[in-house]
Design a protein that fits this description.
Layout: E1 9-15, H1 22-36, E2 40-46, H2 53-63, E3 67-72, H3 78-88, E4 93-96, H4 108-116, E5 121-129, H5 134-150, E6 159-166, H6 167-174, H7 183-190, E7 194-201, H8 213-227, H9 230-258, H10 266-299, E8 306-311
Parallel strand pairs: 1-2, 1-4, 2-3, 5-7
Antiparallel strand pairs: 3-8, 4-6, 5-6
The chain binds uridine-5'-diphosphate (UDP) and magnesium ion.
Uridine-5'-diphosphate binds next to strand 1 and helix 3.
Length: 314
């Protein structure tokens, strides 16, 4: 693609059932873009919504030449919908933002200022999270700290996907073929100068979170398996510990037998069998988690499928 055709800025937002949030989103993003000036586009990705999201998007695209509406074939999930938008967008700088306005688009000028000073990535870091349950905040905090210990990649704490990135970083990101995408980790992995910008995360303007606990768990598992092989290696450590304990028991039972001191032993047997059985299944499950993702990846299917694109340059 000719770089001469690039708008200075792309705003990319994945949308799943966001009919109620989109009008305000477009309004607020529109005002910010006017404030910032320069050429821009707003790439909205309809991730197989079941409400009127697509209609709202295409109407916006008809009204506003900056709006590009992308519809996927079906629901692909947040990270892949975002990836579709990142692949379609053409800007020199790209703002990744959720459509529910939990991340304020008004931070854009500050992000641009930091980028002017040489940052490759300016990421929003949450100072506070309004309107999110204690459960969500505690699990999120635990998750970021856990993954921080398991990988060498410096994945920032308390940061979502809200960030401004350069075209160079974007091209590196979209060139990564991995299917189970943890975009914020992948951006961190790329490196360059990554600068935080503190902000208060608000409650959604409309609708409800599309991340129920089941999706959060899968998301966390994708993140861990994509960035660390520590769980896969855990069986080695546990195996060594078990082997040492087993050896101690071996010596103990032989000595006991030699001095004629044998025990009934039901409790110790049950404890050992239960513990070992549980641990073995757990380890098999961990291997399965990696193997399943490897299998998915090996099929080489497209990451997302686009059904329609409305608006943007002809
Ligand atoms: N989203 C999506 N596909 C999905 C789920 C979510 O495109 O399958 C979008 C959603 O519309 C929103 C963003 O991803 O713009 C973040 O989702 P959500 O706000 O539900 O997550 P939370 O902020 O609660 O973690
Ligand atoms: Mg949200």
């Amino acid at each position: 693609m000719m770089s001469a055709n690039r708008p200075a800025l792309s705003v990319v937002a994945p949308c799943y059932n966001e009919q109620d949030a989109l009008p305000e989103f477009l309004h607020r993003v529109g005002s910010v873009l006017e404030m910032v000036g320069g050429t821009s586009e707003i790439v909205l990705v309809d991730d197989g919504s079941r409400d009127r999201t697509w209609k709202v998007m295409t109407e916006a695209a008809a009204r506003d030449p900056r709006v590009v509406a992308v519809r996927l074939m079906r629901n692909h999930g947040h990270q892949l919908a975002l990836t579709a938008g990142l692949t379609v967008c053409r800007g020199e700088r790209i703002l990744i933002i959720d459509a529910d306005l939990q991340d304020p688009p008004e931070l854009l000028p500050e992000m641009i200022a930091l980028m002017e000073k040489g940052a490759d990535v300016v990421y929003g870091q949450r100072r506070q999270r309004d309107g999110e349950s204690l459960f969500k905040r505690v699990t999120a905090a635990a998750f970021y700290r856990l993954i921080g210990r398991m990988t060498d990649v410096e994945i920032p704490f308390d940061a979502g996907d809200f960030r401004l990135i350069t075209r160079r970083v974007l091209d590196l990101l979209t060139a990564m073929p991995e299917r189970h995408r943890f975009v914020r980790g992948m951006v961190a992995w790329i490196g360059g100068e990554q600068v935080p910008l503190l902000y208060d995360r608000k409650a959604r303007v409309a609708g409800e979170s599309k991340y129920p606990v089941s999706k959060m768990v899968r998301f966390a598992a994708d993140a861990v398996t994509a960035f660390s092989v520590v769980p896969l290696m855990a069986s080695m450590t546990i195996g060594w510990v078990m082997a040492l304990i087993g050896f101690a028991f071996f010596v103990y039972s032989i000595v006991g037998w030699a001095i004629g001191h044998t025990l009934p032993g039901w409790t110790s047997l049950m404890a050992a069998v239960g513990l070992l059985g549980g641990m073995q299944f757990l380890m098999l499950g961990i291997i399965g988690a990696y193997l399943g993702r490897l299998y998915d990846q090996s099929k080489g299917r497209p990451l997302f499928m686009i059904r329609d694109i409305v608006g943007g340059p002809k």
